[in-house]
């Protein structure tokens, strides 16, 4: 009995030979970048999620405070001395301060100036310190020496004391109190960013891709902006995120000492300063802005720690 031969299966033209390949939604052979890896790691960190939610709420509070004052629709600048230091009530859920102002409304509206000062100072210090550090780390020699000696002079000045001196000296001039605080904190805050950027650039400029760019005739500006800056930016972002919370706390300290934000502007540090003299009689006008301030500073520090852990492969 002859074997029955099965008909040969015909394959369509251009059909791939061998076992079927698994489907993939990602392009093969394309390595993941540092930022994509960091974002993938951040999304799995509870500390990042919690801090990001808190910061998002604070930003919305600063931009649209009326959304949060619907339950307590009081003007933060309308004060009644006859009702000073009254406790919480139906119309004033946080009570009133020493001047009879609504504590809840002032706490909500105070977020705008505190965040404005923190973000503006962080951007200014990152720009100044980053550019100086980029130039000093790349060129080295006399440029690095002069910039490093100048930085050491600023490091020798205590931050709060120096900012206090600057703010007190130019107080009452043409600049507003908020602008003056930003300038005072920026003058004393950029050296830390300078050192971080300088160290990152010195490490990156010895890499092969920088040597290759020089061999191909790339100019100094192209090498610094195209090759060095993107590879040295990660540690600067980490320190800037952590410093942002520190600058908000520094503004509160200056306002508490009487040389920061002044009325009619509102900030948490100014509220704490106004409420300190009657703390034993009415503690709530001091406690509530202090809680808002503490949560804000803690949120940015938590965010900075999460970003640092995500961008540093050694800490994963």
From TrEMBL:
Q: Which CDD domains match?
A: TM_PBP2 (cd06261)
Instruction: Kindly list any coiled-coil regions of this protein.
Output: none
One biological process GO term for this chain? transmembrane transport
Enumerate the InterPro entries for this protein.
Answer: BP-dependent_transpt_permease, MetI-like, MetI-like_sf, OppC_N
Task: Establish whether keyword Transport is in the entry.
Answer: yes
Q: Please report the stretch or stretches of sequence annotated as the ABC transmembrane type-1 domain.
A: 111-304
The domain of life for this entry's organism is Bacteria
Q: Name a single GO cellular component.
A: plasma membrane
- How is the protein disposed in the membrane? Multi-pass membrane protein
Q: Where is the composition biased (Polar residues)?
A: 1-11
The protein, known as: Oligopeptide transport system permease protein
């Amino acid at each position: 009995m002859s074997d029955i031969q099965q008909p040969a299966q015909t394959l369509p033209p251009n059909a791939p030979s061998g076992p079927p390949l698994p489907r993939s939604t990602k392009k093969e052979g394309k390595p993941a970048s540092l930022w994509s890896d960091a974002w993938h790691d951040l999304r799995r960190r509870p500390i990042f999620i919690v801090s990001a939610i808190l910061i998002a709420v604070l930003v919305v509070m600063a931009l649209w405070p009326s959304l949060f004052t619907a339950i307590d629709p009081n003007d933060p600048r309308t004060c009644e001395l006859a009702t000073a230091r009254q406790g919480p009530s139906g119309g004033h859920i946080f009570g009133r301060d020493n001047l009879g102002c609504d504590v809840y409304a002032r706490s909500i509206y105070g977020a705008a100036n505190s965040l404005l000062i923190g973000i503006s100072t962080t951007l200014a210090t990152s720009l100044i310190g980053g550019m100086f550090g980029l130039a000093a780390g790349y060129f080295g020699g006399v440029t690095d020496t002069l910039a490093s000696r100048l930085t050491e002079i600023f490091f020798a000045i205590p931050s709060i004391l120096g900012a206090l001196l600057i703010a007190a000296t130019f107080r009452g001039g043409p600049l507003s109190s908020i602008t003056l605080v930003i300038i005072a904190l920026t003058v004393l805050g950029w050296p830390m960013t300078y050192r971080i950027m300088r160290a990152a650039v010195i490490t990156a400029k010895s890499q092969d891709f920088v040597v290759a760019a020089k061999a191909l005739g790339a100019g100094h500006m192209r090498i610094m902006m195209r090759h060095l800056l993107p590879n040295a930016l990660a540690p600067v972002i980490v320190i800037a995120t952590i410093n942002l919370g520190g600058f908000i706390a520094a503004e509160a300290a200056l306002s508490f000492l009487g040389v920061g934000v002044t009325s009619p502007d509102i900030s948490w540090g100014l509220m704490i300063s106004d409420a300190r003299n009657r703390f034993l009689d009415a503690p709530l006008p001091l406690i509530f802005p202090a809680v808002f301030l503490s949560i804000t500073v803690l949120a940015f520090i938590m965010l900075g720690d999460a970003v640092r852990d995500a961008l540093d492969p050694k800490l994963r």
